[in-house]
Amino acid sequence: GYPHSAGYPAAREAVAEFYTTEKSPLTADDIVLASGCSGAICLVLPALANPGDNILLPKPGFSLYNTVCGSYGIESRFYNLVPEKQWEVDLEHMEACIDEKTKAILVNSPGNPCGCVYSQEHLEAIIAIAKKHKLPIIADEIYADMAFPPYKFVPMADLTDDVPIIVVGGLAKRWLVPGWRLGWVMFHDKKQPQMKKVRAAVVALSQLVLGPCSIVQGALPSILKNTPQSFYDETLSKLADHANHVKTALAAAKGLSVVVPQGAMYVMVRIHADHFPETVNDDKKFAELLFQEESVFVLPGRVFGAEGFFRIVFTAPKDKLEEACNRIISFCDRHSI
What we know:
There is one protein chain. A hairpin with an 8-residue loop joins strand 11 and strand 12. Helix 2 (36-48) crosses helix 6. The chain has helices spanning 9-19, 36-48, 63-71, 91-96, 120-132, 196-206, 214-226, 229-250, 283-294, 318-335; strands spanning 31-34, 54-59, 75-82, 88-89, 102-108, 137-140, 165-170, 183-188, 256-259, 266-271, 299-300, 309-313. An eight-stranded mixed sheet has the order 1-8-7-6-5-2-3-4, sandwiched between helices. Strands 9-10-12-11 form a four-stranded antiparallel sheet. The chain is an alpha/beta fold and 337 residues long. The relative contact order is 0.14.
């Protein structure tokens, strides 16, 4: 039959055990399962804000955040990420976005589309803003532990006892199974529980879709307990190698510069408009013509709120990635001025 919409107890307990730390202990009661991390986002945002309220979102950022907010009448307030600082948050701009209708700050590290990994110090600065304004943080940590050495992933919940941290995550990225559609919401609310009503709202919203796949839930305890460390290490090593390859290869592309990724599986590439004619000098025109002429598909940065950039996903086999980079270089050779 149908499982509970918040997930089987054994599956929720497995998530709690896997992610619990000395600084941030979890129990099954702190976990709500969802249909992928995207499904978790769809539960959390409307649970925190009503129509007319606003939530702070990163720009550039995963476009689903804005889509979900818009569908519930929640205003998206975008704070800037700074490419010259490896896509760190512009902290002054973030704080300037807050008003009496702000209900939460969403932070994504490691990040999509930027591949940024925030240091402990930078995350603590973000938490300080949230504490000052008495706001919870939604930490999208779907790429948890996918940081390339020497960078390190730091769970936000380990850095505060005062600010409620609502973490969303899932199987898709680290375990390389996006089609299995199993994600989770983890509530870290250590001092005076402030999130009871929010958790109740998340559980109520989960009943709209009757929870994630029962078969994958049944497999989840074994997946989390028995996946060998070598799998994680090999995956991360390949991703880091591919990221480095894209950075090195595209250094030869006229009119482009790579913002070096620190984790996840994406890289953002800046298009220097003054190197190209009007037919190719913005991200949308560049992506469309690149696809037409070279059969290489990249996403224009405006999809994420970053005009003048495009995103590459570097999960393809290395020979395909090398071919794609060579075609981008050829394209730039033809069109640069």
